[in-house]
Model the fold of this input.
Amino acid sequence: MKFIYSLLLLSFSTLLLAQKEAVEASKAENPTIQPTIMVIPFARENQDMRNVLERNVHLRVATTKVKEGFDSRGFTTVDFRAKLKQLNNEKAMEIENQSSLKQEVIELSGADIYIETESSVNYSNSGNSVTVIVTAYDAFSGQSLSNKVGTSPKFYTKDFNKLTEKAVDGIIEDFLNVMQEKFNDIVENGRTVSINIGFSENSDYDMDSEFGEDEDLFSDVLEDWFGENAYKGYYHVQGVTATKMILDDVRIPLRDLKGRNYRASKFAAKIRKYLKSLELDCTRDVQGTKIFITIN
Amino acid sequence: MKYYILLLIGLVFLGCNSPKSFTGETTYKGSSEKGTVLLSTAGYGQSKALALENAEINAFKVLLFKGVPGSQYNIPMIKDEAKARQQYQSFFEQFFDGQGYKTFLMISKPTSKYDPLTNRSKNLKADIKINVQSLRKTLEKEGVIRKFGL
Done:
């Protein structure tokens, strides 16, 4: 009997080890898809972003130093100026609203995260200094990932490029470390997606429709499902009306059980399958980490 | 009885010889070159060499597991010390006991006198400069910390 137990234990542990090895091998084959990061200059409303960058040398120094910081950690960023050049020149010049140009560049670049960099010169009798503000945003959710303000020491100089370098050098490590903390949190607690569930005009259903034997409201049925299917059960409902449900933070894993990358589109497919099991026909759109579900 | 007394004396002697345990007596002094950090730290020991070694280890432990307030490294490089030490036991044995940390040491300079006759706590203050960039790369290579990104 003891022998059988030992044999069973041995085969079970071998199975577990083999499974673990398979997942590790799969991880090695499919490295985690890294977010695309772009460093952009800060521009005020109605300011032409290209003009701001081209006229302001120390702002160019600041954006380059920030990019350098990413490079030193072995992370390549998307070049803003190269992407800007990709946009049709005339089109870029025609756009007066700065925010729309920024949005366009971000969308064109496919950047998941953009780093806004601002620099300003401070003149004083005791010497000049430069202040740099660096902020990292998630391009889709708008969540802030890291923020730092750095000021260079005061010097009796007009070499603002050097002062800008000193200001960025004083904060960049800390800035990257905070970002890495957020990335570690994503690895541990999952990636955030936002989900917008609505109804087509001709739909016979709404959020107050009753489902199941207990005649639960559709919104409650959905909440239960997200509670069971969100990564570690983490989800947050921004609001529910009779015609719409918005979940601004639903966590999905970075990888599936086989170690493959888990995309937002996979989670959208899972939602669609569930709705189908409730005999609901729906369409879905996925934009980055935003999922739109329309029930017909 | 004689053996017990000898054993007791031996134990007391051993206790005196071993450096005091890890303390947080480490403060930020500056970062003149990118990727480096200069720390002011203190160590204890029965000899000057032991006290200096203890000071160096203190500086590394604060940088790795606690973070250095006021510096760019205020977030510890390793979040969960107990977990990391358990998971990468051999690495840390080599790093601290095998003095692997010395390869990241750029400057180790005593800043106070070591005089056990006047200084009963047998303490030595020192300035320690660490090559953080190289340390980070090694930790990443060994898998102790994650590379930048997801």
About this structure: Chain B has five helices and four strands. Residues 11-17 of chain B have pLDDT under 50 and may be disordered. The CA atoms of residues 29 and 39 of chain B lie 5 Å apart.
